[in-house]
Design a protein that fits this description.
two-stranded antiparallel ribbon; 2 strands
Length: 283
């Protein structure tokens, strides 16, 4: 949110609800990357994250008049987004849920040697990196939605336990305990199976064609490798660092942040250009 103070954000909200389109555009621009990255990690694919981000931003716009400043604006957005995503049923993994047992079995027993070359002359290094980002993101889908949200808030966004507890409706102590257990579970899985982040035998370069065959990645549309990466510390202004609850941070370097796709920005801008701002005042 470009390091704006709560007072500055409250002033923007007041101007936006009074009909100031520029103030509303500033608010949307300040949170759209945050919402997209939370959606991407919660849902597992770029396409599903784009759709959910649009829903959340529209919900923010139409409920803006309900913001009272009892919490920070960022916390308010996190709460809207987290509640929306925990109940989101339109994404791929809602219909095809994963588990660590299933994922581990696929790593151990998938017939990767029987698949022909499907790379379509795309450089294998590019596709291996695409698979690495996709695989570790999809791995999050092995967690239940509440645990996934806790992990993402704590590991990617580095949210303070008091704020995270407020967002999720649990005590800070419960949040810290659950985050520590979830991070250990994720680290154990990576350590056992992943050759990129742990000591497992799974290597992305060896599984490229298998992943293409199973529609995990596409050589014609490498989402992660074409997305613009942004430093995590520019994404939010909740807190500079999370409490030091464990020593597992080195396992989670895959938690990168990306700019929200241009399609989201265009659709939201079209909505702002076409709608009467009275929708905010009357919501």
């Amino acid at each position: 949110m470009n390091k704006k103070t709560n007072e500055e954000l409250q002033a923007l909200v007041s101007r936006a609800t009074a009909g100031d389109k520029n103030a509303l555009e500033t608010l949307v621009a300040g949170v759209q990357d945050m919402v997209f990255n939370l959606s991407l990690r919660m849902l597992g694919t770029f396409a599903d994250a784009e759709n959910a981000t649009q829903d959340i931003l529209l919900k923010m716009i139409t409920h803006l008049s309900s913001f009272r400043g009892d919490s920070s604006f960022t916390t308010w957005i996190f709460r809207i987004a987290a509640n929306h995503l925990k109940n989101y049923k339109k994404h791929m993994f809602a219909h095809y849920p994963l588990s660590f047992e299933y994922y581990g079995d696929d790593i151990e027993n998938g017939s990767i040697q029987d698949v022909p070359d499907l790379t379509q002359d795309v450089e294998k290094d590019i596709l291996a990196e695409e698979l690495k980002m996709s695989c570790t993101n999809v791995m999050l889908q092995c967690l239940d939605t509440e645990s996934r949200c806790i992990f993402i808030l704590g590991t990617m966004f580095k949210v303070d336990s008091r704020i995270a507890g407020d967002i999720l409706g649990i005590t800070p102590e419960a949040y810290r305990q659950r985050l520590s257990r979830i991070r250990k579970k994720m680290a154990d899985f990576l350590g056992q199976y992943c050759g990129e982040y742990g000591s497992g035998r799974c290597k992305c370069a060896d599984r490229i064609n298998y992943a293409i065959q199973n529609h995990r990645i596409s050589p014609l549309q490498p989402d992660y490798m074409t997305a613009t990466e942004i430093p995590t510390d520019t994404l939010i202004d909740v807190k500079n660092a999370m409490e030091d609850i464990d020593d597992l941070s080195q396992y989670f370097s895959f938690c990168k942040s990306y700019q929200s796709p241009a399609r989201i920005r265009h659709l939201i801008q079209n909505f702002l250009d076409s709608t009467q701002l009275s929708i905010i005042q009357n919501s």
